Amino acid sequence: EVCRKLGKKIANRRMKRQKKANKNKISIQKTIRKNLKNGGKLIDLQKAKPPLDKSKHVFLNDISGSCDWISSWFFSIIYGCQRSFRKVTTYEFDSQIIDISEELKTESYYRTYQSIMDKRKAHGMRHEESDMTQSFKQFLNQAPLNYRTVVIILTDCRDWKSRQKEGLAESAVVLRKIVEKTQRVLIFNPEPKENWKSHTSCVDDYIKVGAEVHEVKNLKNLARLIEDL
């Protein structure tokens, strides 16, 4: 319920910020074109219309065993964010991905949660070790990604089946392709930054290929990041 209210609050703040940014803004190009008949003198000022926001937000949620301790928090984030963005597609992954966008459209948090649990069972997703390389490859091929897409990945970045390729974790090599194909890739990591240097963490490799990694361990972190998107 807190995340649902947070989603509404962020959505309202984003709308107010957009309106404020475009209020009484003068379009120099339109003004000059309109006033050519006046010899170029600026008599009739033309205001700029607010640009249409055509960005799409795609979530990828880690439900592998290493994220058991934070899975309910991740789910609440995704459920709450449905109120903050107009165009949202959502996937979950462990060693494969599933699309849960339709299941998230219900107004009932518990009905949504149950339908997603049923879908996980149907696909044999039982919180096993993550195969981020395979999951990222599926995501790259199946998700609607383009230069207007903002990808938000909720994960602890612990790739237990990591293999090395090009001096990086193999999953990072695939993630680079996702970064190149999209507008922006953000990773929300619930672990403290001091744990990002352990040998099973791929944070450094993900940063090297262009992903932005943020520590998100409470509502304050989450609200600040989403509001700024």
Describe the structure.
With 229 residues, the chain is an alpha/beta fold. It has 8 helices and 8 strands, in the order H-H-E-H-E-E-H-H-E-E-E-H-E-H-E-H. The strands form 2 sheets. Strands 3-2-1-4-7-8 form a 6-stranded mixed sheet, with helices on both faces. A two-stranded antiparallel sheet has the order 5-6. Strand 1, helix 3 (71-81) and strand 2 form a beta-alpha-beta unit. The longest helix has 21 residues, at 2-22. It is globular. The two termini are 22 Å apart.
* Strand order in space, largest sheet: 3-2-1-4-7-8
**Low-confidence segments:** none
**SSE-based structural type:** alpha/beta
**Number of DSSP strand runs:** 8
Helix content, binned percent: 25-40%
Q: Could you tell me the mean pLDDT? A: 82
Along the chain, the helix and strand elements come as HHEHEEHHEEEHEHEH
**Proportion of beta-strand residues:** 15-25%
Termini separation: 22 Å
Q: Tell me, briefly, the overall form.
A: globular
Secondary structure tally, helices: 8
In this structure, how is the largest beta sheet organized? 6 strands, mixed
Radius of gyration: 21 Å
